[in-house]
Structures are given as C-alpha cells and as structure tokens.
Amino acid sequence: MGSRKDVVAERFPRPRPLEGLAGAAGDLPYLGLTLAARQERAFLEVGISMATAHSPRDQARLMIREDVVVGHKAVVALADRGLAEGRDLRWVTGGRSGNLAADLAFGEDEPLFVFLASGGTVDPDRIAAAEPVVFDPEERLVELPATQGHDGVEVVELPLTEHFVLPAGHWLQLLWANLLGLAPFLWRGLAGRNIAEVGWRIFWACLATGSLNPRRVGAHLNRRGKGCQIHPSAVIEGCWLGDGVTVGANAVLRASVLADGAAVEDLAMVEGCVLGPGARVQRQAMAKFCLLGPRAAAGGDLQLCVLDRDASVKKTAALMDQAFGQEVRVMAGGRLHPVPLGMAGVCLGAGSVVAANVFVAPGRCLPPGIEILPAPETVLRRVPEGLTGRVIIDGGSLRPA
Q: What integer best gives the mean pLDDT of the chain?
C-alpha cells in the first residue's frame, strides 16, 4: 500500500459541450474562483498534486472529469481506498446525496471521479472500466422551506456533505454544485479547518455577540478581504468576501460568497448566493440561491438562477423559479428532464440582457448575446386625447377600460 504523496491527480475531458455556459469547463465559476482552481485546491489540501508532463505514467492517479466539483473528503476517501485495495475504482455517491446526484445527472451514467492503480496505460477505456464503488457521504439532512402552498410552507430535506462529487457542465448542475458546496465552504472558511480554530473563533464570536445562540453566533462569523468598502448600515451575516468588495447602505447579505471586486448596492438583498469577480447586485434588487458569473449584474428579482458572464437582468424584471402547480423541466442532452425539488430558475447566457418588466418562466435557458425587450403591447407609445377615468394599454395606445 502506498501513500497519498505517491498519487497524482489528472483531468479528463467532458464528452459533450457545456450546456447554457460559455467558455471552457475549467473556467466555470465555483465558490468565488474558477472550477479548475477549486479542483487543484481540493487535491493539494490532502497532499496530492496535479500531474505534469514529467509525472511518471505508471503512478497511481485520481482522474477527475474537467467539469466536476469535488470535496476534499471525497478525495481522501477514494485515494485511501484505492491505495488499500490496489485496483481501479469509480466513485459513486450513496445516501440521499447520491439520489440528488442521480437526479442532476439527467440520465447520464459516465465516470466523474476515478482511482487508477499504478501501472498500465491511462486511457478512456480504462477509466470507463473502473469498478463502481458506493461511498458513504456521511451526510447531514437539513430542513429548508421550499414552497408556499395552501397548507403553509412546504419543508424539504436537503443533504449536506463534504464527500460530494457532482458534474457542473450543465447550467443547473453548476448552480446546484455551488449551492451544495456553499455550506461546507463557509463553515470551514469562517469557523475554521480544525478543532482548535473552530473553538477559538466561536469563543470570540460568543463574546462579541454576548450570546450562545447558534444563529446569532454563526451570523457574526464573516471573512472580509483587503480593500472592502462596507457601509455601516449594511447587514452581513455568515459571508465570505473577497478583496475589493463593495456593500452599500442597508444592503442585506446572508450566507453568501462574493469574489474579488463584487458589489451589492444600497437596499439590495443577497441570500445563499455566489457572486463571481466583478458581479453586481443592483439597488433594491433581490437574489436568492443564485450564481452570478464574472461581471454579471442583477437588477430585478431572481431565485435559483444562473447569470453567465457579462449577463444582466434589469430592474423590475423577474426570473421565475416555480410553475405554480405545473412541473418544471429543463433541457439537457436534447431532452426535457424534471428538476430536483420541482424548482429551477432561469439561465441567462453570456452577455445577454433581460430588459425591465420582462418575466421569464422557470427552467428556461436563454442563449448568449441577446437582448430581451418587453412585449410592444405592454409599452405605452401613443396617448390619445380626450380620455378620462380608467384606461388600459392596448396595442401600444390607451383606451377606456
């Protein structure tokens, strides 16, 4: 049996193009950095380096698909078991996390994360032939409010784990990968990576808040990068802020990651979101459980949505996440598939714009480089004389209601 220092990590290509997302797989936004950078950090954290041109070809290898997010504990589990058994293994997630991962696979059953024992060639056939092994995700189920129905708020159970291995090449996969990785990332980044750090930081948070209430203590844990400009009236709870982040007056941020140069303007609300470098949530906008790519801008209301790089949603526009009694489905691999929890927002392609007063139904993926304008019949262009009382817009003009 070898040790982890004898193992190298290597990427293999995604067999299909990205869906709804521009650029290369390694450049996809994931928790404030690129996906490639987060992959490398997950391996380096446990002592495994990325393979280079000079790495011996007969070394044991962890093969990860270029569009896959992986938790550091999954790296440890697969590497250690592969070294102990000395055979090729393919990661399969068990438990509720595995069910969610299967839903997000959209019918595909391809290798995502594979251990190849030392010796032999490294090729696609060998990767595909690795024996599937189900790993315990050591998950924790948390209850979250999902929808508001006639009987009140419906609560769903969401599995949280650091043993996650998820594809991210489809826009909805990328969104869920960021959301499921958010809680473990914030805990380790804000509370600490070991027992000593956690104890020390929570101790000081208890002193600062004068409370032992877990919610109040957790809300006090924040990370601010260099050169941040935070208005004194802003509320920031449990967030990781990169360098040069700007937060305006009376803005509210909770459980979110803001990359370098991101901005949240006055009176905006951001909850459970990941904002890429230079992304912006504009004045009075609301973004919940969303992913904003580099330089994207959200000015309306959006939930469970993805804005690819340089995309923008103008004020009073809305990207919907529920179909109100109808099933929400997304297009993946040329077919429509149901979505986890029955909810999915909208993907706005790179550089595209949704103008004011435009509403987009859930599950839609809008192509890059387009500008969506409101319907002409909803825009008032002519005002006839002599009208009084109640009137409505009809064909761009006004008439009595």
A: 89
